[in-house]
Amino acid sequence: MMPENDGTYSRAEMPFVAPCRRLPPLAAFGWLRKGIRDWQRAPRESVAYGLVMAAIMALVSLLALVYGSVWLMIAMLGGFVFLAPLACVGLYAISAQLERSKPPQIGRSLRAAFRRHLGNEMVFAIILLIIFLVWARAGAMVSVFFPESGHPLPSELVAYLSVGSAVGAFFAAVTFAVSAFSLPMIVHRDVDTVTAVVTSINAVLRNKLALSVWLLLVVGGVLIGVATAFIGLVFILPLIGYAAWHGYLETIDASAFPRHRIGVTAEPRAPEP
């Protein structure tokens, strides 16, 4: 492990990728326990953040249904799973504040999560947006496999469900590998988007089983939130964000990269009791 940089460094001397640790298959459940603990320590901030994100997702889905079609709305709902890491950026900063024994503040979290790292996050957002738009188009095109009869038999739905599942699984796998740890790393350390993305992909490929469990938990949580008329997302999204932050800290060894010079993560974490 390399010592932490004192702030005087050259980008050319930074590693291309941060090493990752090997995870046990059920590591994600430990992340969720820590996420629940953060939720309990910042309930007001968690509900406020979750309420805003859930309202945005509900509004986008409603617009897709009214001005598009049912298939477009379904594609948009599936895309929320892809965009969840970006929606949780402010939550990473809340967890970082709690780790440093600071009272969590929404304003401080938004400044730390967006304003100070806006350049890298915009590049990442563009990457996710492109994937999301391609996914939305692909999801709409899958509808051509839907049976033409008004009351299709289950056997007639096999082709439609098979193609739709394959397309969705492909986009989910690509997006998950790109975003699993990249945004937490950008918030945590002074790194560029490419380094964070490559680090995330490397960690996912080296911990396929553990990260598959985490992906299933994220997808299941988002589906439950949507199925409850988006009300469940008010509570589930903050939990996912906090758990993702702790998952990053347990998986990625970013000690070779310098801390941010200002902001929440410029200070080291307080020792755990």
How would you describe the overall organization of this protein?
The chain has 273 residues and is an all-alpha fold. The chain contains eleven helices and no strands. Residues 1-7 have low confidence and may be disordered.
Short description:
This protein has eleven helices and no strands.
H-E order: HHHHHHHHHHH
Query: Low-confidence parts, pLDDT < 50 over ≥5 residues?
Result: 1-7
SS class: mainly alpha
Chain-averaged pLDDT: 81
Question: What Rg, in angstroms, do the CA atoms define?
Answer: 19 Å
Largest sheet: none
Work out the helicity level: 55-70%
Helical segment count: 11
Terminal Cα separation, in Å? 24 Å
Q: What portion of residues belong to β-strands? A: under 5%
Say how many strands there are. 0
Q: Outline, from the CA principal axes?
A: globular
Please write out the topology:
Blueprint: H1 27-41, H2 43-67, H3 70-87, H4 89-99, H5 106-115, H6 118-141, H7 158-179, H8 182-188, H9 193-206, H10 208-227, H11 233-251
Which properties best describe this structure?
273 residues, disordered N terminus
